[in-house]
Design a protein that fits this description.
The chain is α+β, with helices and mostly antiparallel strands. It contains five helices and seven strands. A hairpin with a 5-residue loop joins strand 3 and strand 4. The longest helix is centred in the C-terminal third of the chain and has 11 residues. The two termini are 26 Å apart. 30% of the residues are buried.
Length: 135
């Protein structure tokens, strides 16, 4: 199992929307590196859902429920999507400020490549983020 961080504009689709819907097709990824990461996601992987914009915080955890497949709404096999289901909301959101203040995240792609919408998360970063969400 691998860990990921997936970014979303909360005004367009929030973690609350995912909780309400139960599952969704995770689409809209355009960046070449983000698409490369998305193509390597597997069924059963876990993803942190990160709200961008004014919020800039990790809100919840989702599980990937499909292998990557071409976006059925586009005529482009390179533009892939995955299906997700809500797992749980974080006890407390973890803000970008908290992450940047923690020296263990110095090499984390969320900090290094802030515009990347699909970010791999190491086991140690995953565990630290869950710890931070507990206050």
């Amino acid at each position: 199992m691998a860990y990921w961080l997936l970014k979303t504009e909360p005004e367009e689709y929030s973690y609350s929307d995912l909780e309400h819907n139960g599952s969704t097709v995770w689409n809209g990824v355009n960046n070449a590196l983000a698409l490369k990461h998305l193509r390597t996601i597997n069924t059963g992987d876990l993803a942190l859902i990160y709200h961008t914009g004014k919020e800039r915080q990790i809100i919840g955890v989702a599980e990937v429920t499909s292998q990557p497949y071409p976006d059925p709404k586009l005529n482009d096999v390179k533009r892939v999507v995955v299906d997700l289901r809500a797992v749980q909301r974080m006890p407390q959101p973890v803000t970008l400020g908290q992450i940047k203040q923690d020296s263990s995240f110095a090499n984390f792609d969320l900090v290094r490549l802030p515009r990347l919408s699909v970010v791999p998360v190491s086991e140690s970063h995953w565990q630290r983020l869950l710890q931070l969400s507990k206050g």
